[in-house]
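Why run this: before we spend reagent on co-expression, it is cheaper to look at a predicted model of the complex and decide which construct boundaries make sense. The entries below are exactly what would go into the expression plan.
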Amino acid sequence: MFGYLIRIALLSLRRNPVLSTLLIAAIALGVAVSTAFVTVYYVYSGNPIPSKSESLFYVQMDSWDPNRPYSRRRPELPPEQITYRDMQGIMASDIPTYHSGMFVAGLTIHPPDAGQRPFRERARMCFADFFPMFEVPFAYGGGWGRESDRGPEPVVVIDAATNDRVFGGGDSVGKTLRIEDRVFTVAGVLAPWRPSPRYYDPHNGPNQKPEAIYIPFEFVREFEVYPGGNHLIWDDSDGNTFEEHLTSEGVWIQMWVQLDTPEQRQAYADFLDAYVMEQKKLGRFGRPLNNRLLDVMQWLRHREVVPEEATGMLVISLLFLLVCAVNLIGILLGKFLARAPEVGVRRALGASRTSVFLQHIVECQLIGVIGGLFGLGLSALVLRLINRLLDNSGQFGLDLPMVAAGIGLSLVAGLVAGLYPAWRVCRVAPAIHLKLQ
Amino acid sequence: MELGPIFRALMHNPTRFWLITVEVALTLAIVVNCVAIILDRRELLTRPSGLDEPNLVVVTTQPFVDDFTEEGFIDTVREEDLRRLRAVPGVRAAAAIDYLPLAGGGSITSLAAAEDDSESDGHPAPYFVVGLGALDALGVELVAGRDHIEADLRPGYGEPENLIVTQAFADRIYPDGDALGKSLVDTDNDVVFGYIIGIIREMHNAWPRSSIAGLAMLRPGPAQDPREIRYMVRTEPGALDAVFNQLEPTVLAVNADRIITVRPIEEYKRRYFDDEIVLVKVLTVLAVLLVAVTSLGIIGLTSFSVTQRTREIGTRRALGATRSAVLRYFVIEIWVITGIGLALGALLTYALNYALAHLAGAPSIDWPLIAAGIALLWGIGLVSALAPAFRATLVPPVVTTRSV
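The model came back. Tokens follow.
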């Protein structure tokens, strides 16, 4: 029965190819635009690490000015990042499965090929746990061991682009690379990795791609690396020397921990409380105890990483699809009613209203699906264009859920467009049209 | 007029009436909201920054040897860099600067008027640390007081500095217009931070998107950061392209142990405004597509209606109606339908604007914009209906006698 309806619908579409093309184009246009912006919204608001977003926590502690809250607008909030002293203090804990303080900096890379001039790259200074904690994929090798954090040992993880640029690609594990004025050994080369949003550091661009190189955090001392990202301070403890900078009350470090069980979470929260109470005895942390552990999605919501533009475009593009569908109502009505005499004959020969209705709805859905498939192709192009315009290294793309969403949208559009015309045509009275024949 | 019969005929078969009404109303709402957002963002992109944007190019040098941490070394290199940069033909001025206006990254502190003890948090004071000749190198206009001189550079640690501020900044802290010569107090420790020695007409700070874009302060420097030394180079009008490629070799010739980046300020601005630029493009394309789709819809519906009513038209013609009367009938009809649709659309526009303002921070809509949208869509409705309406006038009266 269903196959028969589809065959009839295809025949009907073939009877008037110009009109059918127009119908399909209208749906395709609407689906292309709406799917593209549904995807943009989905990528911006999505869960970048579904497998463990509920066991990764961002650590906040209120080390801010005793006389003034960190945020005037929302005084109940602690600072968004932590100090170097406090990171050292809480990295001593062995409660978390994984934990790492981190920050972004600009470092100079000296390519081994003498013909290439040195260049600056965005580097993440972090601990060994960074890689297993965020499930960072490797093409070759891997992260470094925890023992390399102490010392620290000169080991580096580089991304694919840097590997191509410096070593001409391939398995570069074990090769050496001069960074600032030390020679580092390559421990691993990243496979393509594009978490979106870049949840581990939304402060410094939630839609940026990950950094090009990764080295042990403690090189911060040897290289005297100042933070290349957000850095805020409330007193004047950030003096002239690097040591003063490190021990200052300035907040510039992002701290992540992985806590897998409720017991672990409780133990770590208690540990943080105890740490702060201890610091209070030393005259620091003049504000009320206010530690926070937000999981990935809570943290992203708090940071409001979805740009307002993406929400606006989502609404506008869905309305655009609606206009396309309303447009189709008129065309389909004309098409179906022109067929009224034929329908009259079918009705007179015993076809029920339901079967006439069904036949026409199936035709609309067929138009919807064909239009939707073209629309999906178009929307992939639209997304490529947006990627190019935003220069975001391919952040947006159609994945399986978005293809399903696109098909879903086209079916809904087909239904919106077809319901009324199909209803009208099934109400055709058989007698009138027989008389006219 | 035939308004009565037109209206009764419409109500006799209201489907087309409703379809066009709904479509026109939705289109008006979407297009007007798109245009409001486009205008809002374009205003942001095109408002004057006070800087000589088309002729500014930035040279950033990032040393990678330890020489630069030795006392005096930076000064020597910087002086030589500036001397040679200024000597490049086509370069009008060059000066050292720590961060860049319009680029989205910089420093900010908070300051208050000397006698002001009402507002404990002070006013936001985004600043740049600049060397001599910065006003000319930025292309900003001094309207009161004086430029920095040699004696202003590098006061002792914690000593008050001689500051040049924008008019907007001066007016914000000293609303009576008597800022020149007054002091500014650091709200963190109630110490005098500096004195206002000069006022410039306008200059955007590092965050041109923000509500405080016009607040900027030039501190005497230059900054002593051994990791990054930056120059603002201003070329003669139109000479930027010719000068551009000479800048890197010029500073490399002074000292090659650094990474050099040369980039026009407009490129920094473009990167900062990436989202706005893309949004404006996307919305423009969508608005145009939408109007086209709606226009096609009206053409289709009117053609369908003409076909359906061929016999009626023929009857009218046979009874003596002229061709222009037939044309008039269809034109007035579409005029009435779109008119009603647009009236509904105006309400819908406000509703959508309300939603978008809440969801997406869209700007609120003024009535002239809606009026313009109504005029545009009314015109497009008429034009779209003309071709099918003209086809209606070609129906011969003889149709009535056939086919029954």
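The first strand of chain A starts at residue 56 and ends at 60. Chain A is about 50% helix and 15% strand. Bring this page to Monday's planning discussion.
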